[in-house]
Amino acid sequence: QSVLIQPPSASGTPGQRITISCSGSTSNVGSNAVHWYQQLPGTAPKLLIYRNNQRPSGVPDRFSGSKSDTSASLAISRLQSEDEADYYCAVWDDRLNGPVFGGGTKLTVL
Amino acid sequence: EVQLVESGGALVQPGGSLRLSCAASGFTFRSYWMSWVRQAPGKGLEWVANIKHDGAEMSYVDSVKGRFTISRDNAHNVLYLQMRSLRAEDTAVYYCARGLIPKWQFYFDFWGQGALVAVSS
Question: Residue A58, class by beta-carbon neighbours within 10 Å (0-12 exposed, 13-18 middle, 19+ buried)?
Answer without folding.
Answer: exposed
